Amino acid sequence: MNQSSSTDAPQVAYPRIALFVDGEWIHDRPAFCEVRNPSDDTVLGSVPGAIPADLERALQSAARGFALWRDTPAPERARVLLCAAELLRARRDEIGRTITLEQGKPYADGKTEVERACGFLEWEAAQALRVYGSVLPSEPRMQRLVFKQPIGPVAAFTPWNVPISSPGRKLGAALAAGCSVILKPSEFTPGAACAFVQCLQEAGLPAGVVNLVFGDPVLISTTLIASPVIRMVTLTGSVQVGKQLSKLAGEAMKPVLMELGGHAPVLVCAGVDGAHVAQQAAAAKMRMAGQICASPTRFIVHRSVYDSFVSELSRIARELRVGDGFAAGVQVGPLMNARRVAAIEGLVQDAQARGARVVAGGQRIGQRGCFFAPTVLADVPLDAMAMSEEPFGPLALCVAFDTLDEALALANSLPLGLQAYAFTNSLEDAERIGRELECGALSINHMGAPGADAPFGGVKDSGLGRESGPGSLEAFLVTKTVLQKTT
Ligand code: NAD
């Protein structure tokens, strides 16, 4: 493990965290929690907690912001989003540094995430110009029009693993549609969210169109979702919190867009080069220490290529450089916090106790920071906890199969269905997998996942609705039918 610091990141200070309500940055609230660097446990700053009066003010501000923004011409909304993307890109290095400090991912990945957020804003800026209604066939002196209008102020909750691209994806679409937003990001990674909102502010977004709050998640979600001001709720986060927020939204009759957890299966079929697939799989699995919703997790591998796959995957896992995200050559950063380390330790121990073989890693690294060795478990029994709980860590689970029926049944056996992957040389198998695998996105013969121009989301417990792609604004629009007699 390497914890020495490289110097190519700009040496800017970690930002001071603040709420942003009605166009004003608010610092002077009691600290809700500290922000810690998961690479060395040092305290980077503290997060002010919103008090009920802040939430009420944010709601009233979002109502005023909506009235203004929905009537702002679409080209002007697009201009603000494009300008915010330009500002983010110009600050990519310093924001990337903030992300690495508070989240731990390698600095190069922090910078890539900023670029990704820009890509979402740019896609949604163009989407703002394509909100079309329709005109229905009508008799003379009657017009029958179908309008698409912004749904209203949105409550948006975002996670720590993608602390700037998730707000970019969500707010890009909401703002393009003409909605105002109250954003509650994760308190583990508040610096990225502040930098994001600052760019929107400097790009000319009027006060009230975006408000930013931190603090007690239960107080914030119950207050915002129950308020008549809020018309729609969106979360990127865990299944558990998704269900809680969906319940609150249901009680208030508000639609939701939920991007939740996954447990991605990777079907590796007979006839492929197991070692070659393992090389692609290792890079995708260990990226961001496995803390990605689309992270490949259950490797369901045909028995004829199983040994070559497992041996190459574990060889690469053992060679990966784990350490501080600023250190030269580091490929895998820390887990988000000590709780995540304990969770992965528990999953490994449970799988081992049930008969799994640890072929790489298997334990935490050092006592400082939250590092866990890239881990490959082979012959994992189906009743191991890790086979059904989202590990959200550097844990690859390998099992062998004999028939495609068996592989598909195993892949579909969980109540989750976000991203999935398959490797095959057979067109027939690829067609069948595409049809039968229960997931929101499937990558065949590569480990990529959809970007800004393709829909992304889950089936089953992995979520409701889709972000990005040609229909990205749908969740933020309502349809109004106007029947107008002209005389
Ligand atoms: P989380 O559900 O714990 O938190 C997400 C957000 O919800 C945070 O802002 C958090 O503070 C807030 N929150 C937590 N409890 C809340 C409550 N009771 N009321 C209101 N808000 C509450 O998730 P996380 O640990 O930040 O992120 C990891 C999870 O996110 C994983 O399950 C991962 O798969 C999922 N994720 C999904 C996608 C996707 O696109 N589907 C993308 C990234 C992450």
Automatic annotation (TrEMBL):
User: Which key words are in the record?
Assistant: Oxidoreductase
Catalytic activity as recorded in UniProt? 4-(hydroxymethyl)benzenesulfonate + NAD(+) = 4-formylbenzenesulfonate + NADH + H(+)
* Function in brief: Involved in the toluene-4-sulfonate degradation pathway. Does not discriminate between the sulfonate and the carboxyl substituents and can also be involved in the p-toluenecarboxylate degradation pathway.
Protein's organism: Rhodoferax sediminis
Give a GO biological-process term.
gamma-aminobutyric acid catabolic process
Name of the protein this chain belongs to: 4-(hydroxymethyl)benzenesulfonate dehydrogenase
The answer to keyword Oxidoreductase applying to this record is yes
**Keyword flag Ion transport:** no
Name the coiled-coil region(s). none
Q: How does it assemble?
A: Homodimer.
Q: Which CDD domains match?
A: ALDH_F5_SSADH_GabD (cd07103)
**What's this protein's family per the entry?**
Belongs to the aldehyde dehydrogenase family.
Which of the seven top EC classes does this enzyme belong to?
A: oxidoreductase
Q: What is its EC number?
A: 1.1.1.257
InterPro entries registered for this protein in UniProt: Ald_DH/histidinol_DH, Ald_DH_C, Ald_DH_N, Aldehyde_DH_dom, Aldehyde_DH_Superfamily
Could you name the domain of life of the organism this protein comes from?
A: Bacteria
Question: In the record, what terms sit under GO molecular function?
Answer: 4-(hydroxymethyl)benzenesulfonate dehydrogenase activity; succinate-semialdehyde dehydrogenase (NAD+) activity
Q: Where is the Aldehyde dehydrogenase domain?
A: 25-482
